[in-house]
Design brief:
Length: about 425
């Protein structure tokens, strides 16, 4: 498939914008993967028992484990204004840090209750940083469902870190976005083989290897939902490398090529480094083409991965995109992927749930990507569904995961065929 083909390109396509009822998780959910990534950090949600139950259920952590997250539960006296919430928070943080001396970064995470009560967690973080420096740096960000959806919590978290990163004049590349360790290692290996470096990661696995930022810093996003973080880095003087996101063989190649071009890597060296993993990725994807090719795809807004994943499924797996919806459409960041989407794709930003369900029923797609709350009802009505949350918790970036990514979408179709009595 060629970018010059008249059947591709959504750069100037109209976007339906909906501001009705939504069916998405809040930004607190991002703590589930951030706490695994940042090994000396702790995420303290200032919220209700509902917030605590959400995280406990989403993370699947047993009660006797020592996770790197917790909830400072707002009790009735806090909600009624009978207690000084800031004094109580100071006391709970002191107890936490005494019990967990391994913590080097503490994130105070705002929730719906703390937002409604207008707790100033920014001021609390500044005060607590002064109290516990230099051993611990305290940040604050919002994961509230009033302000954020699902993956957006990572964006607000990383954006809160950017102003505190050290300044540098060194010419370094920063890869932005939390990746599973095995995927991060593959990414760094490819960039090292290309001769690009030094390369830093944001977030880093530990606070002592966090990147520094300055006018000679270049950065590239590995996740498509980091608009606020991207803006914060640009305000520090860093320059963004624009590229499609590294999903599938094509997306990974274009992502790496954008970096290679920025660093003057020759075409011969690029081909030598990428030829073998590209071939492996194409072969792995090919195993799923019989199931996916020609099938229609509908995506409800959930993870903000929708547009680059739709590009992958259309161009590399031969699927037909119908409506592709995303919670927020950052056109500058998504421009390279939008240019590769089939031109007849219907784009939606936001959600009016009932109206979108009506459109979904009229289209009757072969495969629907949606949140957990919609999946079971749609399955009961005979639709094959893929949980959007699984796309975030599963390693899906870069060449070696391309086959696994295609498999996430082919399995629901095979399962539905079996349930309907057909060939798998």
């Amino acid at each position: 498939m060629s970018l010059d083909s008249p059947t591709f390109g959504c750069t100037d396509s109209p976007v339906r914008r909906e501001r009705g009822q939504k069916a998405v998780f809040c930004g607190l959910t991002s703590i589930v993967w951030l706490h695994r990534k940042m090994q000396d950090a702790f995420f303290l949600v200032v919220g209700s028992r509902t917030c605590a139950h959400l995280l406990q259920a989403a993370a699947g952590v047993m009660i006797f484990a020592e996770p790197r997250f917790g909830t400072a539960v707002l009790e009735e006296q806090d909600l009624a204004g009978l207690a000084d919430a800031h004094k109580e928070l100071d006391r709970e943080v002191a107890k936490l840090l005494e019990r967990r001396p391994d913590i080097r970064q503490l994130f105070l995470v705002g929730s719906c209750p703390s937002e409604v009560l207008k707790l100033d967690l920014d001021r609390a973080a500044e005060r607590l940083s002064g109290l516990h420096a230099p051993h611990v740096r305290v940040y604050s960000y919002t994961g509230s469902g009033l302000d954020t959806t699902f993956t957006q919590g990572e964006d607000t978290c990383l954006a809160a870190m950017v102003p505190t990163l050290d300044a540098t004049d060194a010419a370094e590349l920063v890869v932005v976005g939390a990746l599973p360790d095995v995927v991060e290692d593959q990414c760094l290996s490819l960039l090292t083989q290309l001769g690009v470096g030094p390369v830093r990661m944001l977030p880093a696995r530990r606070s002592d290897i966090e990147p520094a930022v300055g006018p000679n810093t270049r950065f590239i996003l590995a996740q498509p939902f980091l608009g606020e973080t991207s803006g914060a880095l640009e305000r520090r003087g860093a320059k963004r490398i624009s590229a499609p996101f590294p999903f599938g063989e094509e997306g990974t190649t274009l992502w790496l090529r954008a970096v290679a071009d920025a660093y003057g890597v020759s075409a011969e060296k690029f081909e030598a480094v990428t030829a073998a993993p590209r071939a492996r990725a194409k072969k792995a994807i090919a195993a799923h083409l019989e199931t996916l090719s020609g099938k229609s795809l509908f995506m409800f807004p959930d993870s903000q991965l929708e547009i680059p994943l739709a590009r992958f499924l259309a161009r590399e797996c031969g699927m037909k995109t119908t409506e592709i919806a995303t919670p927020f459409l950052h056109k500058a960041i998504m421009a390279p992927d939008l240019a590769l989407l089939p031109s007849n794709t219907a784009l939606t930003e936001g959600q009016d749930l009932e109206a979108q369900l009506d459109r979904h029923e009229a289209i009757n797609p072969d495969l629907t990507v949606c949140g957990l709350g919609l999946a079971n009802p749609l399955e009961a009505k005979g639709h094959a569904t893929k949980w959007a949350i699984e796309l975030v918790f599963t390693p899906v970036h870069f060449y070696e995961q391309a086959g696994d990514l295609a498999g996430l979408f082919s399995r629901p179709l095979r399962r539905r065929a079996l349930l309907n009595g057909g060939a798998a």
